[in-house]
Structures are given as C-alpha cells and as structure tokens.
Records
---
Amino acid sequence: MDLVIRGATVYDGTGGAPSAADVGVTGERIEAVGDLSAERAGVEVDGAGLALAPGFIDVHSHDDFAVFLLPEMDFKVAQGVTTDVVGNCGLGAAPFESAQSYLSFFAADRHRDSLPGWDTYGEYLDAVDADPPSLNVAALVGHGTVRLDAMGNERRPPREAELARMLDTLAEGLDAGCVGYSTGLVYEPGRYSATDELMSLARDMARVGGLYASHMRNESDGLLEAVTETIRIGEEAGVPVQISHHKASSPSAWGLVKDSLALIDAAQARGVDVTADQYPYRAGSTSLFAVLQNIEEGTAGFGTVAWSNHLLASAPRHTDWEGQSLTDLAAGFGVEPLEAARRIVDAEGEGAVVVIESMCEDDVRTVMAHPSTMIGSDGIPTLGGKPHPRLYGTFARVLGHYARDVRTLSLQEAVHRMTGLPAGKFALAHRGNIRPGAFADLVLFDPGTIDDIATYESPRQHPTGIAMVWVNGTVVVRDGSHTGTRPGHALRRAG
Ligand SMILES: [Zn+2]
C-alpha cells in the first residue's frame, strides 16, 4: 500500500454511525478499510483523535473558469472539497463564445488569453484532464449559455431551428459526460424561457438520465410556484431534479421553506427524485445587474430587500466602492439607492457583484435539517473584491457551526449530505464513500476545532481544523497548507 491512515474515526459517507478504522490507499483508490495493523505502507498518517471523511462534493459551484485561472483551487480544497460541480445557474462552460460573455462576472475578462481553448463541453472536460486543477470537476450544461449560442439574448421562445440547435448542444454535453443541465431563470437569457422550452430539453435528457438543476424563477413570494414548476419539469420529463440554493429570500417570504420542503416531500412520495442544495448563510450573492433588472422589470425573483442590506462585494473598476452598502454608496453619490445601483451597473456591467442579507436564520436551519438538502457553496470565485465568505467557508461552517455547535444535524448526517448523497445524485461513480475500490478523495479533520473563519469583511481566509486532504490518493493539503499538487480529473457521468 502507498498510504495508510491509522486510527481515525471514519465517517464513510453513508450517513451511518462512524467507527474507528484504518484506511489503506494504493494508487488512486482505497484498497482496504479495517484493522490494517499488519500492513506496511510508504506513507503512514496518524489519524488518532481525528475524523476521516470522503472528500466533500461541492454540488453548486461556479468554478468553470477558475479551475484554469486558479488551478490550485485553494479556496475549495482548504475546506476539504475534492470535487466541484460546475455549470450551475444556467452558466455553462460551452459553447465558449457564449460562456466568455460572463467572464466579467468573475472579474476575469482580462484573463481570457490564459484559458485553454475549447469549444464544446467535451473539449472543456478534455481541457480539465490535460491541465488538471487540484480537485475533480464534473460539469452541468448551462441552459443560458446554450440559449445564448442558439438565439442570442432574445426575449421570446426559440424558433424550431433554434430549439434544434439547443438540443444538439445539450446532447453533445451529455454524451461527453456532463451530469445534467442547469437553468438560471432570474438571469438573462434564461428568464425569457417558458416551461415548455425547459421541458423539451429535459425530455431529451431523459434518454441518458442527467439531472435538471434550477436556480428558479422566484425565491421570494413566488417560491412555491417556482418549486412546483421545477418539480413538474422533472416529473413529466422523467429526470431527477435538483433545486439550487433552496431558500426564502426577503422578509415577506420568510417561513415559506416549510411549504417548499413539503412540496419536495410530496414529490418524493410520488416517486420523483427531487433534492436541493444550500449554502449555510443568511446572505446570498449575485450580479447587481440581475437584481436591478428584476426590480425594474417587475419579476422580483430575488424579492424585496432593503438597499442597506446590499453590500457591493466586487467592482473591479472602482475597488474603492467595494465593501460598502448600496445606501452608503448612494449617500456618497448624492442620489437614491436605486439610482446608485443604476450608476454602478453602468460603470461596471456584470462585474458588479453584491452580497444580499435576505434570509432568516430559522429558514436556514429548517432547510438544512431536511434530508433532501445537500451542501453547495454557490461561491463566486471573483479575481478581486470581497467575495461572499461561502466561497471559503461553506463546508467548515456546516460541520463546525451547524453540526457541532448548533446541532442542526448530526456530524455523520452532515458528512453524508456533502459526500455520499451528492455522489449518488450526480452519478459520480466510486466517489463520496470510504470503501474498498472507491477513489481516495479523503479529508482528515478535527471535529472539535473545525470552523469557518471567513467573514464578509475579510472573506479570503481558509477554515481551521482541516488536517489533510487527498484527491485521487495524492495529498493536496497538509496542516492547512497547499502542497502544490494538482491531481484532479474531469468526472464524466457514469453510464
Ligand atoms: Zn444561482
């Protein structure tokens, strides 16, 4: 064996009770789990007093470009994340000509030349394998990107030929191993698509069984209608459903998650495979352009939240604005907050990213306690500014603050929600569990000290309590430091 981790308390990812065991690794895979005291290994790690879990799977990431621009992916692997699912919220990696239109959202538009060339989803996944990051990458086809490619930013249904082109692009991605397709129905151009368009794509996807992941049309007063539409698409098309960042946004909608969870329970009872993901914070983060558009066009997808609760997280051309609330910025400009938002969008375009305190703590805990909820950071890997701390802290915050301190869920359940549960849902073969034959994506951590320390003021801080992280059997984090290795793979949907 190449590696034996001795005497850790093993949380195997199934959600079952943990047990003390040795874990032996040969090459990229776990070879044995149990009493390995008779075995000698090239590397011996003492896990006594620590927890050993499968590497965490971030089912809701936006790291499509970051895996090339920031290939060590320190902000993820330092939390124990060993697999990213990219392409969420309708923002896919291909076709590249369309995808690059939102490089500015990540303050990365000046780094376009640093990206390897790709056109299709298959080429994107191949590019990941050719120059791998430190973690594994699975991809969703992004509906918005596909629609933009087929018909531009048109505010109408697709014509027959346009829909045919969308279906072709989706099929290319799915055949190349993408795990499903995502929508972002508050964003351009996804917001211009009706249910039947989304249904057409989902029906086509049913032949391979990829999942439908949706940032829904409304996460506020219209939450229940939006959840109903999302479940209906999966149910009628016959594909699994993933509700993205399940929440009730804005005070008037608080409490609605009890009803949206009941809709999930009822759908599951009918046999629909519907689950959700969540980031463990009361604030969200998104494009200020999108927030403004939803207000001005009356779609209210984000609900109504006081401008004082909007913090400008990223403004690459005016970094002195970063970290200020919209009301403070408005006072500085001498205008009303709505007008300030318009000015900022005019000056920054999609580069203006806001953090919005829009949820209540009861709802965050209610959603997290529900067995349908996986963990997804929704981190925005901006190259500048003050990103929402979820980019750095999500997984440690669930394990430390919510599982250990607040006891919203047990530690074994929390581990399951970030490992075995998502691996099954996203069809990531031989991932998400500690058992012989599985890939050796592993996290060794101290359950007593694990904590997120990233804050809104100072977000770029790695969590405490993570001792070691392995990806495909290679150590990428040791004592909180990145080893510089980049052993990730592109993960293609299993069968
Ligand atoms: Zn989203």
---
Amino acid sequence: MSRTSEHSAKVQSYFDHRVADYDAFYDQPSAFWRWFNRTMRKAVYYRRDQTVTLAQKYGCRSVLDVGCGSGQNSVWFVRHGLERVLGLDISSEMVEESRGLAERAGVASRCEFRNGDFMSMDFSGKCDIACALGVFDYVLEPDPFLRRMAQHAEKVIYGSFPGWSLVRSPLRKLRYALRGCPTHFYRQAQVRALFESVGFGSVHVMPIPSGFLAWSVRDEVEDESA
Ligand SMILES: C[S@@+](CC[C@H](N)C(=O)[O-])C[C@H]1O[C@@H](n2cnc3c(N)ncnc32)[C@H](O)[C@@H]1O
C-alpha cells in the first residue's frame, strides 16, 4: 500500500466509526450541549456560514462539498440559498447518513452524495463554489487536493485550516493518533502559499481562533462583484 492510500484508509476507517458522534455535534438534543458547542466551537458554525456569505457575494448557485461528513452543512447550504449541492466523502457511513438527512429534510432532490476518496474518485463537472470544511486537517498532500478542487470550481474555492499551536496541536495530534487517525496543522504563510500556487484567482486568508479560513476567487468574478 502506498503512503497516500494508507493515509486515506486510516481517515476512512476513523470516520466510518464516528458517524453518530460527529452528527450528534450538530444535532444535539441537550440544550446545554447545544449552547456549549455554539459557544466553545464557534469556528465550525462560522466556517459553514462563511460558505453562504461567499456564495451570495459571488453569485454561486451550486456547491461542491468536499468531505461533506454527515451532510449537515450540505443540507444547510440548500436551505440557505444554494440551489444544488454535490457532497463527497471518503466514508461510506457518512455518505449514507447524508442521504438520510437530506431525505428527512425534504431537500434530497437538490442534494447528491457520492462516496470516495476525493483524490482518486472518478467524477466530472463543476460547481460554482468548491469548499472543504474541517477536511484539510486530514489531508496528507494539500497542494494536489486544492488543485483538484480548483478543477471542479467555476468561481470560488474555499477551505478551513487548523492552525499550528504549541500546546493544542500536539495534544490533538496525539488524541487522534491514539485512535489511528493522522492529522495536519497549518501556518498562515503556508495557507497563503498553497492558494497562490494553485493560481485560481485573488487569495484571501482570514485568521480565526482555531486556525484560518481561506478562499480564492476568479479575477473576473471578483471584478464583477466589486
Ligand atoms: C471533520 S469531518 C467534516 C465534515 C463536514 N465538512 C463538516 O464540516 O461538518 C471531515 C470529513 O472529511 C472526510 N474526508 C477526509 N479526507 C477525505 C478525502 N480524501 N476524500 C473525501 N472525504 C474526505 C472525512 O471522511 C470526514 O467525513
């Protein structure tokens, strides 16, 4: 097994076994935990809302949700102005959960979910905005990953990146490693260089408490929105 496919297999196995935990994060029945998540894990909601903000600003109607997880964001997107979403995830359990969620939410006709490793799966077509939220944390080679997102985006590419912190990062790395999942962290200059090297368009990097949100917009789309 190559280093890349070994890495992917670990990520897939980790998320296949954590669907319920992950989904509970968004769909928390307890008022206390809902409050806790919204207060202590603001970045998760902020990075999701920023997708809709960018879509509105740059006239995006379709979204490619790379690493869609349990589909909570995908469903949120079509409920908040996006017409269509294509969600992809390496975990088949996550994809099943996404399909069920979209059915229950009554938006299944506007959502498509497919299972596979984004880097090796076979699919064609483009969406207006391609996003990867909470995904670069688990990506071994971010350059080709972002490049592939760019190939499937008409207007905007957008991702979240966990920042490097002297105390939190090693602890998080260890916590995940003990469960067999590799994690990766980023510095601001690295995120900017990553987006610039793809050469998609203008680059924006926004520091947030947990790391960075970064996006790139095609020059003509940026000009039109000015
Ligand atoms: C932390 S979850 C984030 C889910 C969702 N984007 C959100 O913000 O709630 C990361 C997801 O990325 C998926 N993932 C990681 N690497 C992937 C890859 N190479 N191809 C497709 N999905 C991937 C995982 O299976 C997992 O469901």
